[in-house]
Amino acid sequence: MKHNFGSFVKKESLHILRDKRTMLVVMLIPVVLMVLFGFAISTEVNNVNVAVVAPERTDGVSDAVERLAENEYFTFCGYIDHSDIDRKLRTGEVGAVVVFAPDFDRRAAQMAEGVPTKPLIQLVVDASNINTASSATAYMQGVLLGTQSQQSMFETRMMFNPQMKSAYNFVPGIMGLIFILVCAMMTSVSIVREKETGTMEVLLVSPVRPVKIIFAKMIPYFAISCVVLVTILLLARYLLGVPMTGGVWGIFSLSLLYLMLSLSLGLLVSTIAKTQMAALLISAMVMMMPILMLSGMLFPIENLPMFFQVVSNIVPARWYIDAVRKMMIQGLPIVAVWKNCAILLGMTVVILGVSLKKFNDKLE
């Protein structure tokens, strides 16, 4: 019996390896998504063109402008007149303009002595892109205030991600998305294809029990997913520079649990869908959209309406992404995310049990 089970695993593995298009999709999509989200899609402040309006170029103004020009996230485009602000912003020559007060040094001295005074600096920012505008404004204020020790009325510390790198945010999220695509979609399509071509009936008359046939089909995809997982972790660490201070083995172990959950979802889809196209649509759309919208990958869960916050609790990727972020970025060990692990384990047991029961019912 063990020999028969091993033969089924070998047969399915060879079938997958011979399908060059499937292998290309499975191995290429994770790399493309990681590079795309890590480099091309960026929400961090970077290369913002800044001009300066300074009626009096005093030492304080010069020091502030010099520090701003030296900052790698801004490009200093020179001094302009106050009348050119609107034109420069409308034409896109600059994204922000820093306007210093005429008596900047005197007001700075008064502020240092605790004397109430009007604002010393005015920031005029192109807000057509609100994400870039808000990020640039907040970061620019920190740079300008930090250059004037007399104005340093507060200290700002950005914990865990001081450079506000978007890759730190996207990598855990894209991991949660990739494994659903690779495991759930490929597994469901593979099983449904066997039903469509009629080979599933041939397999079921073999001495191997139906449940073992299903596990034999899942094992090769689990092995491929492990290869994808290792590839993703290597890209995240050495290409995107994402830290893994919580421990690589903890992240790997949690990801293996999530892989099993994704495979179980794929099996569940195969019991619902009757055609490969239906399985593909259910896996790609019904599963992918909740991951993008309700998992915290793109939008904070706390910002969602209360109804969607409640619904997000049944999205497995929410708990996985939250745990991976804590382990990668915040440096927490796996024991610190035991609640997330317990929820994912419970979901895996329930989904796998329901899937096997529905599969056996269909056979009967």
Write the topology of this structure.
Blueprint: H1 2-18, H2 20-40, E1 48-53, H3 59-70, E2 74-79, H4 85-91, E3 96-100, H5 104-112, E4 121-125, H6 130-147, H7 166-197, H8 199-204, H9 210-239, H10 248-272, H11 276-286, H12 288-294, H13 306-311, H14 316-328, H15 338-363
Parallel strand pairs: 1-2, 1-3
Antiparallel strand pairs: 3-4
Would you write up a description of this structure?
- The model is unreliable at 147-157 (pLDDT under 50).
- This protein is an alpha/beta fold and 364 residues long.
- The two termini are 22 Å apart.
- The protein has 15 helices and 4 strands.
- It is elongated, with a radius of gyration of 27 Å.
- It has helices at residues 2-18, 20-40, 59-70, 85-91, 104-112, 130-147, 166-197, 199-204, 210-239, 248-272, 276-286, 288-294, 306-311, 316-328, 338-363; strands spanning 48-53, 74-79, 96-100, 121-125.
